[in-house]
Amino acid sequence: MILTPRSLGGIAAAAVTSFSLTRWGYRKPMIWGLIIASITTVVLGQGVPSWNVVDLVGGKVTFLAFLMLIAGIGVGMMMPPSNNACIELMPEKVATITGLRGMFRTVGGVLGISLITMILHLSSNPVTGFRIAFTTFGLGMILGLPLIFMTPDGREGR
Questions:
Q1: Whole-number Å distance between alpha carbons of 144 and 108
Q2: How far is Cα 47 from Cα 38, in angstroms, rounded to an integer?
């Protein structure tokens, strides 16, 4: 119930972004998507606030679902331009690039799960562990921002 909005937001954002790449280029949606995904991850690390506003909009589950929707939009904005930018670098090696991207995505997921498990195991309690993990990962994503400027803009030849 909480994760479904992330998928829906990602699907919608990826569709809109895909059709807008000729106008926006690759970098803008990747930058905005990374910033959105990073901020939502850091907010998740802080926990659900006990504001009265959270109770007015439907409670903690609704707040988390909304946060997941925003995170999905961020990830959905990043995926189409990053796929196209990689393929634009070497169009004759599409199969190789697609395979490498899938491999790195899988390895990143495995490493992320392993690191979160290690952080949770070493933490004094799960709340502290999740706070450390989400905040660190969210801030760590921002460190990837300069790498976006090394990718093709997607506007050459237009």
A1: 14
A2: 15
Considering its fold, how many domains does the chain have in total? 1
Give the pLDDT means over successive 10-residue stretches in the chain (158 positions).
Answer: 92 94 90 95 80 63 88 94 86 90 93 94 91 93 90 65
Domain of residue 61 covers: 4-148
Q: Which among 131, 136, 8, 24 is positioned nearest to 73, based on CA atoms?
A: 8
Neighbouring residues of 44: CB distance < 8 A, sequence distance ≥ 6: 67, 71, 134, 138
Q: What is the pTM of this model?
A: 0.84
- Report the Cα 135 to chain-centroid distance in Å: 14
48/134 Cα distance (integer angstroms): 13
